[in-house]
Amino acid sequence: MLELTMAAVSGADAGATAGMQMAEAASEPGAVLRVGRDVSVCGLVTPQDWLFVSRAHLEFRCGADGSWHLTWLRGSQPEPSAQVGLRVGEHVRAVAYGGTVPLPSGGSGEVVVQDRSGPRSVNVGFYHEV
Questions:
Q1: pLDDT per residue over 67-106, tens digit each?
Q2: What is the pLDDT of residues 3-14, one digit of tens each?
Q3: How confident is the model at residue 118 (pLDDT cuts 50, 70, 90)?
Q4: Do the beta carbons of residue 25 and residue 34 sit within 8 Å?
Q5: CB atoms near residue 76 (< 10 Å)
Q6: Which of 37, 52, 45 minimizes the C-alpha distance to 4?
Q7: 3 state SS of 9
Q8: How many angstroms separate the CA atoms of 114 and 130, rounded?
Q9: How many helices (H) and strands (E) in the chain?
Q10: 2-49 confidence digits (pLDDT tens)
Q11: 4: number of Cβ within 10 Å
């Protein structure tokens, strides 16, 4: 099971958890959870006017072995207006635009989508229950 919690945070709201959303999926091959602005394809939806987040921005996908991977989906622009980082414990790893990284099996962490033009972020906590 992969559990996600998401909070959209602007500079004035730093530290607030208002508007938190949750989603989960069983660790079955092919299971997918998406984060973005498009409610028709994303289980966790950001504010519509936050254009630094693509319609479908992040994808969490379960592989054949039950492991989960995070992909920063490429949007319509050649260069992103955000940066994405994966934090597990004290370790922070940048995720490349269009890149895929594994999530720790049986672990937890946070994915942060940071607006490059202002103090806004989308924080997605994850917990992989085995």
A1: 999 999 998 889 999 999 999 999 999 999 999 999 999 9
A2: 999 998 887 655
A3: confident
A4: no
A5: 6
A6: 45
A7: strand
A8: 29
A9: 0, 11
A10: 999 999 888 765 555 456 899 999 999 999 999 999 999 999 999 999
A11: 20
Looking up tokens 């966790």 gives 44
| Residue 11, both tokens | 């500079």
- Tokens read off for 1: 């099971």
Q: Are strands 2-10 and 120-128 parallel, antiparallel or unpaired?
A: antiparallel
β-bridge partners, 7? 123
Give the integer Cα–Cα distance in Å for 116 and 118.
6
Q: Are 6 and 124 in contact (CB under 8 A)?
A: yes
Six-digit token string for 122: 């989308």
